[in-house]
Amino acid sequence: MSTDEPRPVTRRTLLAGAGAVGLAGVFAGCSNDGRGGTSGAGDSGSRAQVRPAYVRYAGVKPDLAGAEYKIPDAFNRYPADPVTAITTPPGDGRPINVMTYTNTPIPPKLEQNQFWQELNKRAGSPIAVSLTPSVDYTQKFATAVAGDRLGDIFLVGNVPQVPQMLQARAVDLTPHLSGDNIKKYPFLANLPEAAWNAAIFGDKIYGIPIPRGAIWSQVLYSRVDILEKQGLKAEVKSLDDFAELCKQLTDKRQNRFALASSPTQFVQCMFGMPNTWSENGKSVVSYLEHEAHEQVFEFLRKLWSSGWIHPDAFSGQNQDLKVRFGNGSSPLVHDTFSAWPSYLQTAVDKTARIGTIAPPKHDGSGQARIWLGAPAAGFTAIGKKAEGRVETLLSYLNFLATPFGTEEYLFRKFGLPGVHHTLTDGKPVLNTRGFSETQLGLLYQADAPWTIFLPEKEGSSEAEFNAMKQTCTEAIVNPVAGLYSETNVRKGPQIGEDITQVTNDIIQGRKPVSAWAPAVKKWKSGGGDKIAEEFAQALEASR
Amino acid sequence: MKRNQVLVGGMPMPGRAERVVKALFLTLICAVVVFPFIGVISTSLASPEEVIRAGGFVMFPTDGIDLSAYRSILSGGTVTQALIISGFITAVGTTIALFLTCTLGWALSRRGTFGNKPLLLLVLISLLFNPGLIPTYLVVQQFGLLDSLWAVILPVSVSAFNVIVVRAYFVGLPAAVIDSARIDGASEWKLFWHIGLPLSKAVVAVVGLFYGVGYWNSFFGALLYLNDSSKWPLQLVLRTYVVNGVEIGAQELGTAGEALPPQTSIQMAILMISVVPILCVYPFIQRHFAKGVLTGAVKG
């Protein structure tokens, strides 16, 4: 459910962050410099030279190539003889201190962790990782900035004045990564072009992005087996068609509700709303101002009041969605493409089949476009204190970005054969030990471009590939994705939370649809207008 | 009052109907507390299939007992090690905190000690104003405590609220006892150690419990000050399991694995592991509880 990273910003965090920046006290002027361009092709002038060159890695041939559809490559099996992509360990023998976050339980300590020991050997340097649960990372990051203890490599947290913070605390990587210079690090050069926007500030590259993009687009998952049992097709042609499907799938005597959560974004896509922001001449406009909101709400209220949405949709946790979908009590759920494996893993019924439903235009006049996921999940920077070791650290990150199909990738994700995973017929399966020892937060330091690989069930990789091909190729791009707005960092989370609250209240009938217009007005005056202005400037400057 | 009425505790015995209503009401209240707890235990012990089938919460497991949730948490030794660390933090922290709080409370309760009033004011001010995240971090850093367990123990070893409670208790001790001890030649330290403290066991027990629970549950200090996750206390380690469920979690792994127990059973197992030690301590301190908290609040 995450087009954004989980970073709860409370009043305290914001103050803390502001404090961090204030106390560090060495930041230069606060102009909101422009940022990297939104598309590689659209860049011109000096910016085009700053941008790292994109060199696609061709060492591994995918089973299904996604490049022409702007989606990830898909694999049915892990290549039998993985390519050894890196021959000499990147490290210099000195410890590499990394600060990043994690979404999984922490691993056993080094002495008891064979994966970690092997990683140190392969990296050529002892890796010391400071992990923080992702929800707490903002606070940890703010204190680390204030105390100047960011480590050699750090994932940049969501604090105010990021450009100034980077200038003071991070190494300018432009001389090492801009243009053809990046070719020295072939696997960093293999990262998708759009992902770099997040790491480019003004005319400087400050980090290595953690790529996402299409895989983070949201889609309506369906339990094809349940639909088929009822003689229904996993396809809808219009708004009414969708309502009818929900009605058919709901069976209160069996405690079954069609939708695990409110399909808000799905319906918004049906009405052609832009992906968060849209360009209007030289300004940008938020999707909140789109005229179709009232119609969207009317429809969602109908879904809710008819009991077609699970009653716990607004109160449960993300994990509950998977449970409801897995046990069949909600055969439809809206989630990101990246969630596919977790739905495969939570399916109780072994005959369960997962499919997706693409949104149609509300009036039935064709297929609607979904929103393309954010191009990056964040970026990691290199600390100024480690300036003398930049090349070593970039080589280490290059090692972490080795793509699917390589020996290094297999090791990073699945550990050692026989110890952490078993490899049968090209399907590596992590065992419990593997699951616990490999959680060193490596994928939030640097990662390869996403690949579709679902060994859990035969045919799943192809199913997801086809679903993405159908929806993501024409997906709507957020024009300001990866651009920076100071107000968005400071006030965005708060005013965004207010909007979510009003949205949920209206759908559940606690507030009338007429409450929407004043809420948007409040959002605009509370910072929305300023955010739009800053994004417009950033967009202009990025061209 | 009727002559042949039965008295219970000096009060007339209520009628049958009233007793039934009361019993029902109390049973209901108990059920409201007990049932979710049974649910927590059951879910932590239910089989993964049953948890998913039931939609996440099992009341009475029918498939028999399944310890996979506990096994998945305790494998790898991280949690066991964190338990030991938490035990250390709680034991040492509570001892230090009690010592500091009691001595400070004693000093503030004695009239005419040096700087009594300004010191008391300082303590009270800290109730109103909080230093905030970054300043506290910088102080801890400048004391060189980062990455040591002392960073988790020392900054929270004096709580102004507890000092006030202890001081109020000391103020309420009979002056005659203390005066007579002083006439017998007792030093101030002897007064505190041999007269004041033994008379105040109730409040010490209660404040000790406050500190103990505080240290046992604390995770935020460890989160900020301890970079090395092998030094993390139990609550912070367990947090990484819970956060996993709330946020993107497994989907971000992008890897196939042997089926893990459902998030709910893991969360419930975590709840059991973190609650049980504290539950074991409660019965021993409970008898002091009402007295310790109330004394000092109302003089009687």
Write a compact overview of the structure shown.
The complex is a heterodimer of chains A (543) and B (300). Chain A has helices spanning 11-24, 45-50, 114-123, 137-146, 162-169, 174-177, 186-189, 224-229, 239-249, 264-270, 293-305, 318-326, 340-346, 390-400, 407-414, 432-437, 460-472, 486-490, 492-507, 516-541; strands at residues 74-75, 96-102, 127-133, 153-155, 200-201, 204-205, 208-211, 218-223, 277-280, 283-286, 332-336, 354-357, 376-382, 421-424, 427-430, 452-453.
Write up what this structure looks like.
Chain A has 2 domains: 11-215 and 376-453, 3-Layer(aba) Sandwich (D-Maltodextrin-Binding Protein, domain 2); 218-371 and 476-541, D-Maltodextrin-Binding Protein, domain 2. In chain A, 36% of the residues lie in helices and 12% in strands. Chain A contains 20 helices and 16 strands. In chain A, the strands form 6 sheets. Chain A has a 5-stranded mixed beta sheet, covered by helices on one side. Chain A has a 3-stranded antiparallel beta sheet with strand order 11-8-12. In chain A, a hairpin with a 2-residue loop joins strand 14 (421-424) and strand 15 (427-430). With 300 residues, chain B is mostly helical. Chain B has 2 domains: 7-66, no CATH class; 75-299, MetI-like fold (Orthogonal Bundle), CATH 1.10.3720. Chain B is built from 15 helices and 2 strands. Chain B has helices at residues 16-45, 48-53, 68-74, 78-109, 116-128, 133-142, 150-153, 160-171, 175-183, 188-199, 201-217, 220-225, 234-246, 250-253, 263-294; strands at 7-8, 11-12. Chain B has a two-stranded antiparallel sheet. In chain B, a hairpin with a 2-residue loop joins strand 1 and strand 2 (11-12). The longest helix of chain B has 32 residues, at 78-109.
